[in-house]
Design a protein that fits this description.
This protein is α/β, with parallel strands linked by helices and 161 residues long. It has one domain: Phosphoglycerate mutase-like (Rossmann fold), CATH 3.40.50. The chain has 4 helices and 6 strands; from the N terminus they run βαβαβαβαββ. It has a 6-stranded mixed beta sheet with strand order 3-2-4-1-5-6, with helices on both faces. β2, α2 and β3 form a beta-alpha-beta unit. α1 runs parallel beside α2 and α3 packs across α4. The protein is globular and about 45 Å long. It starts with a strand and ends with a strand. The model has no long low-confidence stretch (mean pLDDT 96). Keywords: Hydrolase. Its EC number is 3.1.3.-. It is an enzyme of class 3 (hydrolase).
């Protein structure tokens, strides 16, 4: 069994002019919502083996806040530049490279690719707001099988739910 949690980074700030898209930070709501989502995951007993994130500041910040809430060592977070500005297929390719010994992975990314991948796995997911977590369980032994089989369970949690 493999459990994949796709996280759209929390709400980012547009206040600072002259800041590149890659360097945009979280806004107040994002800094509030990300740890709250992490606490919800912790309350459900989610224990990731790996936490991947885009290299963008807002994604890395979201990943760090979720990690703290889960008791996941921030030093173990992997920032992968391929997750920034990626296509759905590129994000899936990164996930398929995960070690098969790992059974639970969290991937923090961006839209539209995070929402599109969630929709590909489960057609009922049509909207993934900032800070949302889409959780999928697959009855597979290897990460490279994702995308070839439907998930056995799907869960969507948003900051407003």
């Amino acid at each position: 069994m493999k459990t994949l949690l796709l996280v759209r980074h929390a709400k980012s700030s547009w206040e600072q002019t002259g800041v590149s898209d890659h360097e945009r930070p979280l806004n107040h709501r994002g800094r509030r919502d990300a740890p709250d989502m992490g606490r919800r995951l912790a309350e459900r007993g989610v224990a990731p083996d790996v936490l991947l994130t885009s290299t963008a500041v807002r994604a890395r910040s979201t990943a760090a806040l979720i990690a703290d809430a889960l008791g996941f060592d921030q030093a173990r977070i992997t920032a992968d530049e391929r997750l920034y500005g990626a296509s759905v297929d590129e994000v899936l390719a990164v996930i398929r490279e995960l070690a098969d010994d790992d059974s639970c992975a969290i991937v923090v990314g961006h839209n539209p690719e995070t929402e599109s991948l969630a929709h590909r796995f489960a057609g009922e997911i049509r909207d993934l707001p900032t800070g949302a977590v889409a959780e999928f369980t697959f009855d597979v032994d290897a990460w490279d099988e994702l995308g070839e089989v439907a998930p056995t369970s799907v869960r969507l949690d948003t900051p407003r739910s």
